[in-house]
Amino acid sequence: MKCLMKGFAASILAVGLAGVAGPSFGADSSTWSYAAATKWGKLAKEFHLCGTGTMQSPIDIPDKDVRKGDLPALLFNYKPSPLKIVDEGHLIQVDYAPDSWVTINGKRYELGAIEFHKPGEAKVNGKGHEMEADLVHKSQDGKLLIIAVPLDVGAENPLLKDVLANLPAGKGKEQLVSGVTINALGLLPKDKGYYMYTGSLSSPPCTENILWYVLKTPATASADQMARFGRVYPMNARPTQPRNDRDIIGTP
Predict the structure, then answer these.
(1) Residue 167: which region, alpha, beta or left (left: phi > 0; alpha: psi -120 to 50)?
(2) Which of 21, 154, 176, 251 has its CA 20 to 30 A from that of 28?
(3) Which residue in the list 48, 90, 129, 137 is annotated as catalytic?
(4) Range with the lowest mean pLDDT among 16-20, 29-33, 195-199?
């Protein structure tokens, strides 16, 4: 998890994420790779948490150890946004226009970006998914919250269709697609039950104390869409990290 829209960048500096440049936060994408994920912590001192952190993401969630209860619902207020795509060198990111948010326990988190990974990063009981869409949010006090939406092969995904039809011409490129709008609601499954834990960015600098909500029910994308994305990024997922006895809560 590396990128956010420009509107997030300045405020993210205030909570200590390193290396903000342009629309991205985190590390310069030229200095690391997913193929060398086990070595991130040794590449630069600002990446040290990638190797020494105790709350790293993603994780393999053991359902039997999840503390379940009557938890608050995720209340989505997503609105249409102009389609703005960034190929930042490791993943495809959609920058989302302001004024869309999710509310949980009365606290509002504004949606800033959607990032796509292949394969999916989160696992449950050792089982992963073909792809994953990570919806990155930030609260007014600077707290980051990421909603991970697993994607399995099935019906075509309308939002991903628009993204794949309008990819930037090259890596490091940004493209605002005239006349095309998207709505992140189209990425969400009908059942919005979740697992929640405290983790990290899943790419350098691996900053911790980030809230993760992993949806239990996958959404879908077609096999052709999966294959097309895979021709751009055949593998852009970090391996699962030690749980380290972190508390995981989940809806029934």
Answers:
(1) beta
(2) 176
(3) 90
(4) 16-20
